[in-house]
UniProtKB/TrEMBL annotation:
Family from the record: Belongs to the pseudouridine synthase RluA family.
Cross-referenced CDD domains: PseudoU_synth_RluA_like
Pfam families: PseudoU_synth_2
Coiled-coil blocks: none
Gene3D superfamilies referenced in this protein's UniProt entry, alphabetically: Pseudouridine synthase
Catalytic activity of the protein: a uridine in RNA = a pseudouridine in RNA
Domain Pseudouridine synthase RsuA/RluA-like: 92-242
Protein name: Pseudouridine synthase
Top enzyme category: isomerase
Entry keywords, A to Z: Isomerase
EC number: 5.4.99.-
Source organism (scientific name): Paenibacillus campinasensis
């Protein structure tokens, strides 16, 4: 379900044109309810909230919804250079560099996070909305992070994540020569009770599925493209280490840290449906310089 017509953002309001068959109904309120829930696919939770807050109104043939109200960021804006890979009124995709987390930990420390930088970007753009990351990346993993810019987008994108409709394609450089027969790793992951920061393959853990899409081999390493079906903490790192191919640089999971100062993992592509229109959006994130250099040094033939 999605909206295929034209739309405009006017301040706090989103204006849609449902068509005369809806606008001309005797009971416009009921016609609008059915159209929003059944055709557009608005989450019922949000519809009820907007109705309660008088956030739905007709203006001629236009249906207006308060989807862009003023909201606190929820995190202190801290300026840091931010590479924006995609942006519209509903979504933002930021390219996360290595060395920063997406969000802070429970200790409430002062460490810079990607959320701080996104809040500062919103502030500089004159946008006042909560910072809403839809997924996360490990601190030293690079690549695209998807943000919802309003509650409507957050509810729709969160649902798509739960239903595994958002595709995340990663590039990883691992130790050793991965054989072609290894295409799917379906092994549950749980906490390692002997090491607070680690995860491990565990029969009592949560289901975790990683698909290996392609393999390029050099004498000492393999370049993999992988797609996550689930999103467990450290999933690619745990799965590849368990299979005897830890990521280069990933000392936490048995990788050789000497040639590379972090795990050699980069989110290369993010594919998702636009929360309003349903349009398929594919975002490519350029490789960071250290990964490019590692690939060159590893003497991959292609």
């Amino acid at each position: 379900m999605s909206y295929q017509g034209s739309w405009d953002k006017r301040g706090e309001w989103l204006e849609l044109i449902p068509g005369k068959s809806i606008a001309g109904q005797a009971d416009q309120e009921e016609a609008a309810r059915q159209w929003l829930l059944e055709t557009v696919g608005m989450p019922e939770k949000l519809y009820r909230k907007l109705r309660h807050e008088r956030g739905i109104e007709w203006r001629g043939d236009r249906l207006r919804l308060i989807l862009f109200p003023y909201r606190e960021y929820g995190v202190e804006p801290v300026w840091h250079e931010l590479e924006v890979l995609y942006e519209d009124d509903f979504c933002l995709v930021a390219n996360k560099p290595a060395g920063i987390n997406v969000h802070g930990d429970s200790t409430g420390g002062e460490e810079l996070t990607l959320n701080h930088a996104v809040a500062a970007y919103y502030q500089a753009s004159g946008l006042y909305t909560a910072v809403r990351p839809i997924h996360r990346l490990d601190k030293d993993t690079t690549g695209p992070v998807l943000y919802a810019k309003n509650e409507y987008a957050q509810l729709k994108l969160d649902e798509d994540m739960r239903e595994k409709k958002i595709a995340r394609i990663y590039a990883a450089i691992v130790q050793g020569q991965v054989q072609d027969g290894l295409t799917t790793i379906d092994l549950p992951i749980g906490k390692d009770r002997h090491h607070r920061s680690r995860r491990r393959v565990s029969l009592t853990g949560q289901q975790a599925v990683t698909h290996i899409l392609s393999v390029e081999r050099s004498r000492y390493a393999s370049l993999l493209r992988l797609r996550l079906e689930t999103g467990r903490t450290h999933q690619i790192r745990v799965h590849m280490s368990h299979m005897g191919h830890p990521l280069i640089g990933d000392s936490l999971y048995g990788g050789n840290a000497r040639p590379f100062g972090r795990q050699a993992l980069h989110g290369e592509r993010l594919i998702f449906a636009h929360p309003l229109t349903g349009e398929q959006i594919e975002v490519l994130a350029p490789w960071p310089e250290d990964m490019l250099q590692l690939k060159e040094d590893s003497l991959f033939l292609s």
